[in-house]
């Protein structure tokens, strides 16, 4: 009677395929070679297109069933991307400890359950924050810059823009139909006017909760504006950690670490 026991070679085949897939994904998501960079640039462009859809979603909801078809297509793309990133990571438990991952998972949940999480749809714009604050983005785009100013300005601008549209979505979802908030543009107008402390007064939020929200928008908005201004004014630095004290940023022409005096050897691109 022939044996039905699988050979070691057959048992190891699925494992070998899984290892090859993981190595391939790790190369694409973390590699520095031109094909990997082109792949990540493509993913970033798709991400920006998805964020554009999130931005226009309050207006596009009138499309009816077509809106939900696009919603689920985006959910599929985002789910595949997150699964690939998780599989490419060396330790999935370590990957799940990152706050950015949980934000992306929540965004995915709003896409998978658009009816039940309708009032939280404005939080999808957090995808802009997770993208521009991710190692994935700066390993691809930021590698072209040898100083930290561009990165700091981009991060500060991303924080401000994300806050504006998250606050706008919250105002629209919570106060729609009250005191001039008839549409999304009205909510955006109120948010920008409040955030910049212009306060024309033609659109206001009712009750004490409306006043408290206005105060919160003003305080957070001023803070984010100051951070953006600091990013523009602050002297340019390069990311070069000192091997003695660990100081991460130094002046581009620094010879010694200003914290411990250690001799530095910052690469010069000849500019």
Automatic annotation (TrEMBL):
Topology of the protein relative to the lipid bilayer: Multi-pass membrane protein
Claim: Cytoplasm is one of the keywords in the record: no
Localization terms from the record: Membrane
InterPro entries: K_chnl_dom (IPR013099), K_chnl_Slo-like (IPR047871)
SUPFAM superfamilies linked to this entry: Voltage-gated potassium channels (SSF81324)
GO biological process: monoatomic ion transmembrane transport
Transmembrane segments: 39-59, 65-88, 100-122, 156-175, 211-229
Pfam families to which the protein is assigned, alphabetical: Ion_trans_2
Chief localization: membrane
Keywords: Ion channel, Ion transport, Membrane, Potassium, Potassium channel, Potassium transport, Transmembrane, Transmembrane helix, Transport
Keyword Hydrolase: no
Annotated Potassium channel domain residues: 162-233
Family matches, as PANTHER family: CALCIUM-ACTIVATED POTASSIUM CHANNEL ALPHA CHAIN, SLOWPOKE 2, ISOFORM D
Protein name: Potassium channel family protein
Species whose genome carries this gene: Brevundimonas albigilva
